[in-house]
Amino acid sequence: MPAPASFTNYIDTHAGAFIKRLGDAVAIQSISSDARRRQDVIVMGNWLNGQLNELGVETKLVDLGTHEMQGQTLQLPPAIIGRLGNDPAKKTVLIYGHYDVQPALKSDGWKTDPFTLVVDEDSGRLIGRGSTDDKGPILGWLNVIEAHKNLRIAMPVNVRLCFEGMEENGSEGLDECIKEEVKKGKDGWFDGVDCVCISDNYWLNTRTPALTYGLRGIAYFSINITGPGQDLHSGLFGRTVHEPMTDLIKLMSKLVDHNGDILIPGIDDMVPPHDEEELKLYRKMDYTTDDIEEAAGGKVALSSDKTAVLMGRMRQPSLSLHGIQGAFSDVGCKTVIPAKIGGKFSIRLVPPQTPEKVIPLVNTYLKAEFAKLNSKNKMVVEYLHGGKPWVADVRHWNFEAAKKAIEAVYKKTPDYTREGGSIPVTLTFAESLGVNVLLLPMGRADDGAHSTNEKLDRSNFIEGTKVLGTYLYEVGAAA
User: What positions carry a catalytic annotation?
Assistant: First the structure.
C-alpha cells in the first residue's frame, strides 16, 4: 500500500525545516566514549525526548544506572522508550536508533567543524558528525511522525520507539532494559510488537538501496603492556630496558597479515565454507571493487574479485588494528619511552562465532606470543566489549514491506546484504521479542560514518524519510 501523496508532498515542502532540525542535533556533541562529553550525551537524549513529546509521542526515560569509564563513575545516558498508537487492529512496529556519536576533532582531518552541519549546495551533502550515524535516520522517523500529525492523517501502524545513547560505546545497560521491558508482558511498552526496524547502516554502494538481513558481531580487545614505573627518556634508557611499545608492536604484528588473514589459530576455521547458492547472491549484487575503493577514498581493495571482497565484508571474520593508547601522537618530536600502553584491536564475527568462543583463543595465542619475547614487562589482555552476529529471514513480510517501499520511492529493487558492521542490540530484539528484525539503511556506502567529513546526502535524507513512511504503510497492509 503506497503512502498518500499528501505525505510525500509534505516531506518535500518541509525539507529545509528537517535539515535545520538535523543541524540542531549535530550541534550537540553527544560522544559516548568520552567522559568529558557525557553530559552532552544526556543533553542530546533530553533534546530528542522533547522533540518526540512535541510530536505527540508518549515517552519514558529509563535510568540505566552508572558505569566506570576513564577512572570515573558516570551516569549512563537514558534509554528513550516511546509509543504512539494502540489500535489492536493495526500492526505494531518497534523502531530503534541511537543518539550518541563517535569522537570528532577538526584536527583529525575534517574540512569543516564536525559539530556544525554544513549544507554543501553543490554536492547536496549534509556534512557533520552523526549526520548519517545515526541522528539523520532517527530524525527521519520524527519527520514521518510530524507529517502525519500536521496533516491529521492517522499512522498506518502503532509505533514503539527505543533510542539509546551508548551504541558507540558498547550499549551498556540496554540489553537489560529491553529484557526487563519484555518481561512486563501486557504491562510493558513492547507488548504486541510484530516486527522491528533499525536504520543504522548503509547501502552497499552509492546507487542502489539495500535491505540488510545479517550483521557481523564484534569482540573488542586491548593488549595492555606495563614495565617502567614512569615514562622514560630514550636518550637515557634506550637499549637499556625492555620497552613496552616494542613488545606491543611485535604482538600486534602477529594478529593479522597484510592480506587480511587472521593469524590467531582457530578463528577462521570456525566458519563453514560457502556453497554455490550463496556465491550466486554475491555475484548478482550491484557492486564492483571500484565501489569499495571509492568509499575508502583510495585504490586499496584486497582483491579485484568483487565476490571475494563482498564475502570478506559480509560472511568472513576480520581483525582490525585501531590504535595505541598511551603512545605519543601529538605534533613535534617527543623522545619518550611510554611506561604503559594499550593496543586496541577488534575481531568482527560471523555465525557461528561468538565473543565467548573467540576470547579464549585470543588470550591463549597472545600469552604464547608474549612468552616468546622473553620480556620483563607485564602483559594483560583486556576484553572491552562485544556482540554476537545476527542473520534474519528475508522471506518475511517485514522484508517484503521494505522492498515495496524502496521500489515505490526509488524505483529500484534493493540489494539484500549482510553488513560488515555490528549492532549488538539487533540480536537482543530478535531473541527477546521473537519477531523479525529488519535493517533499512538510509545512508550510502560513502557516507564516512566513524570517519572524517561524515555526511548524509540530502536526497538520502529526504527520499529516505519517504521510504520510512512508505514502509509503515506497507507493513500496515501486509497479510
Answer: 100, 167
